[in-house]
């Protein structure tokens, strides 16, 4: 084909192209709106960013000391909260017993929020979890590190991640992969699902849990849980059935979900009638 004819034809196509085509191209080329949340800024500013549906990325950098953050923003577009490139983000205690640092859907609905790659350090946890999820949907909390924490009451009441309920609804579509939890000589526990109605669809893969009370405790009507690839060392709480490290009891045998490829060493007993054994588990 003659090059001149080709270019003339292409120019005619461009002129005749529907305006919708250009709108599609413009939107695809648009860069996401990125904002920075610095340690000198207030908790209310972070909540305002989360409530702004035009914000798609919130970058963190440094060490933060914030009050309890109750997040009740039901977004229409996902926002990702993460460290800026080359930075790290650590949240530290305010030196008072903590309700939770991040509470999703406690007095409203939260949705379409990702929070990832942060460290929670030095909290004294009340009867709850550092990350608490109630009436919330499509929440992703990946690659958290929890360390140097203690319990205001006991290891069986203080958790790194707590799946609960609020306003007659539990969490829906939660992903919590890649957590590292050091329970500080079994002072706190790792992951709990408690109160009904509870979560529907939870994925928790690749956790590294050590020196905790319970590694996992499910006592709810949770369904659709996918628990895979955990490494657990030195876990256990002395209860009615002796020392146990992993418990999953619920209304339907095997109805909570699937547990697979758990490698437990130096742990207490395992009692999981509400979970289906997906294989690859080593209970040490």
Verbal overview:
- This protein has helices spanning 3-16, 19-29, 43-51; strands at residues 34-37, 57-60, 62-64, 69-71, 74-83, 89-92, 102-104, 110-116, 119-121, 124-125, 128-133, 136-142, 145-147, 150-151, 158-163, 165-166, 169-170, 172-175, 180-182, 189-194, 200-205, 208-212, 216-219, 223-228, 231-235, 237-239, 242-249, 257-260, 263-267, 269-271, 275-279, 282-283.
- By secondary structure, it is mostly beta strands.
- The chain has one domain: Pectate Lyase C-like.
- A hairpin with a 2-residue loop joins strand 26 and strand 27.
- The protein starts with a helix and ends with a strand.
The CATH C-level class name: Mainly Beta
Give the name of the CATH architecture.
Answer: 3 Solenoid
Strand tally: 32
Q: Helix segment count?
A: 3
Q: By CATH's scheme, which homologous superfamily applies?
A: Single-stranded right-handed beta-helix, Pectin lyase-like
Give the biggest sheet: 10 strands, parallel
| Poorly predicted residue ranges | none
* Spatial separation of the terminal alpha carbons: 72 Å
CATH topology grouping: Pectate Lyase C-like
Describe the global form: globular
Radius of gyration: 23 Å
| Structural class estimated from helices and strands | mainly beta
Domains counted in the coordinates: how many? 1
């Amino acid at each position: 084909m003659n090059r001149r004819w080709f270019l003339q034809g292409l120019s005619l196509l461009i002129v005749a192209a529907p305006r919708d085509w250009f709108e599609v191209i413009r939107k695809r080329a648009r860069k996401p709106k990125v904002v920075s949340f610095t340690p000198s800024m207030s908790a209310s500013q972070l909540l305002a960013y989360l409530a702004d549906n035009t914000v798609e990325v919130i970058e963190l950098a440094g060490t933060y000391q914030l009050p309890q953050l109750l997040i009740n923003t039901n977004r229409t577009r996902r926002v990702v909260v993460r460290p800026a490139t080359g930075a790290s983000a650590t949240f530290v205690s305010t030196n008072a017993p903590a309700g939770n640092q991040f509470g999703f859907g406690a007095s409203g609905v939260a949705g379409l929020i990702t929070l990832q790659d942060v460290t929670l350090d030095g909290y004294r946890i009340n009867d709850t979890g550092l990350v608490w999820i109630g009436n919330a949907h499509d929440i992703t909390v990946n690659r958290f590190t929890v360390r140097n924490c203690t319990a205001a009451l006991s290891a069986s009441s203080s958790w790194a991640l707590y799946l609960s309920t609020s306003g007659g609804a539990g969490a829906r579509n939660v992903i919590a992969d890649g957590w590292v939890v050091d329970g500080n000589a079994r002072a706190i526990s790792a992951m709990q699902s408690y109160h009904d109605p509870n979560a529907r669809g939870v994925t928790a893969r690749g956790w590294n849990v050590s020196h905790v009370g319970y590694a996992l405790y499910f006592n709810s009507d949770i369904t659709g849980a996918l628990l895979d690839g955990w490494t657990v060392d030195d876990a256990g709480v002395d209860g009615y059935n002796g020392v146990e490290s992993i418990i999953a009891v619920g209304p339907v045998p095997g109805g909570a979900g699937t547990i697979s490829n758990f490698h437990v060493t130096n742990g207490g007993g395992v009692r999981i009638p509400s979970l289906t054994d997906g294989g690859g588990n080593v209970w040490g």
